[in-house]
Amino acid sequence: MKEKDIDAFFRHLSAAIPAPRTELEYANPFTLLVAVVLSAQATDASVNKATPPLFAIADTPEKMAALGEKKVRNFIKTIGLFNTKAKNVVALSKILVEKHGSQVPRARAALEALPGVGRKTASVVLHEAFGENTIAVDTHVFRVANRTGLARAKTPHAVEDLLMKVVPDQWKHGAHHWLILHGRYTCKARKPDCPVCVVRELCAYKDKTPAVEGESIEFKPRRRAGS
Length: 227
Prior knowledge:
By secondary structure, the chain is mainly α. It is about 55% helix and about 0% strand. It is elongated, with a radius of gyration of 19 Å.
């Protein structure tokens, strides 16, 4: 995709979604970190159903560590891979208390050293909690970047590297959310809603979904609690 088209791509997305933000519900950097860890191979909606009762009694590393694996597991048992995730959440909470003064570290290396935290999770936390211009590549971002021709590569890390190079600086801060939301609600995996896509004229996808007479699709992202 040409530079001018990339600028137009994000201009159209920003017009459709003026204030993009995560759909995960959280109260502070720690609960954000836990929510993102829990969201691996799960939907934000499923995480948001499970976490309010958990965060009501354990919104700090000390409280989460004291809660213990068994109790954490009972709160998140509706989320996929809950056994492993409960173990990781308690383990990372203990490390935050012991090594980071109960604070979520701002350094990528320190974040990625925590149990259950990979590059994507670290990128989300750095972006959402600390305002850094990271672009976390999940399944939605990977699909949209490759399908549209915005940044074609074979691995999430390679796509991330390309996006950081080609996305204009003025769009970098919102790029992560725009691409996720576009992939979640419009550029879907099985049947993209090409007829209502705001960037369809810029998209390189050859097999665009044809319009269906009388069909109307409206983009309605969830709003986080309190927003």
